[in-house]
Amino acid sequence: MTKKILLIIIVLGDIVKILKIKKMSNNKYKITLDNTEIITFDNVILEYNLLYKKDLSTDEIKIINSKTNYYDAYNKSLKYVTKKVRSKKEVEKYLDSFDISNNEKREILDKLTNLNLINDKLYCKAFINDKINISKYGVGKIEKLLKEKGISYDIIQNELSNIDYDIVNSNLESKIKRKIQNNSKYTNFELRQRLIIQFTNEGYSKEKINEYIDKYIDNDDEIIKIQFDKLYYKYKNKYGEKLFLIKLKQKLYQKGFSNEVINKLMQEKTEE
């Protein structure tokens, strides 16, 4: 929704009489005119010496309207960047919601940059720190998110070069270890595929993912036996003898069962 202060002025001529000017909170003033009121900022009051004016022309009212919208955008943008670190692209997008000109938007961006309240290098550094230590993302995802935030390639690469990869790898290892230890449903083949998909999406390298899977994955004979029995009776009750074997083997292959394992389990089942 567009953020702007609307000034509705009803006049009978080119001049509107100022009836009263009252100071309000948050550096604002209320100007009471014939048939309307204007809420503006002290910057506007001082800039146009309004405390000493008795009346305003319609052109002056338009200027006050424009300047009020400008200071509204500036003050809210100032609060926006001091509440949380923002990238330049984020502030640009925020300013698009105000009824101000492109030149005014650039002027506000320059002011905030000169105050060091917009600094993409500092933003990038803080973003990387949070995503590694709090969100525990991999480098690939962090880089992708920074590009989306409008951070330049050079800044991203420079800050990524300072990453402590021991922390990144430790995060990944802890996640994979926990996932494997809590697994009671999937075969090693299925679990590996799921972990690769999950952690590549989080920005970790496939090489490191496989390294830690190999380190912690255990024998899954019991899970294989449980899954085989479940599928065996499911398909046996659903299909005829010939089709049953075809469907069963297809499903077992999809789950990563080798032909050797399938034949062994089938043999054990016929001997029961």
Account of the protein in words:
The chain folds into 4 domains: 15-114, Winged helix-like DNA-binding domain superfamily/Winged helix DNA-binding domain (Arc Repressor Mutant, subunit A, Orthogonal Bundle); 120-160, Arc Repressor Mutant, subunit A; 165-216; 221-270. It has helices at residues 42-47, 58-83, 88-95, 102-114, 120-133, 139-148, 153-160, 165-181, 188-201, 206-216, 221-236, 241-254, 259-270, and strands spanning 15-23, 28-33, 36-41, 55-57. It is elongated. The chain contains 13 helices and 4 strands. Helix 11 (221-236) packs antiparallel against helix 12 (241-254). A hairpin with a 2-residue loop joins strand 2 (28-33) and strand 3.
In short:
It contains 13 helices and four strands.
Topology readout:
Elements: E1 15-23, E2 28-33, E3 36-41, H1 42-47, E4 55-57, H2 58-83, H3 88-95, H4 102-114, H5 120-133, H6 139-148, H7 153-160, H8 165-181, H9 188-201, H10 206-216, H11 221-236, H12 241-254, H13 259-270
Helix pairs in contact: 5-7, 6-7, 8-10, 9-10, 11-12
Summary tags:
272 residues, alpha+beta, Arc Repressor Mutant, subunit A, 4 domains, four-stranded antiparallel beta sheet, 13 helices
Within CATH, the superfamily of the largest domain carries the name Winged helix-like DNA-binding domain superfamily/Winged helix DNA-binding domain
CATH third-tier fold name of the largest domain: Arc Repressor Mutant, subunit A
Count of distinct strands: 4
| Biggest sheet overview | 4 strands, antiparallel
Alpha-beta classification: alpha+beta
Just give the CATH class of the largest domain: Mainly Alpha
Q: What does the overall shape look like?
A: elongated
What integer value in Å does the Rg equal?
A: 33 Å
Task: Extract low-pLDDT stretches.
Answer: 4-13
Question: CA-to-CA gap between the ends?
Answer: 71 Å
Helix content: 55-70%
Question: Helix count?
Answer: 13
Number of domains: 4
Tell me the fraction of residues in β-strands, as a range: 5-15%
CATH structural architecture of the largest domain? Orthogonal Bundle
The ordered string of helix (H) and strand (E) elements is EEEHEHHHHHHHHHHHH
Mean pLDDT: 85
Across the major sheet, the strand order is 3-2-1-4
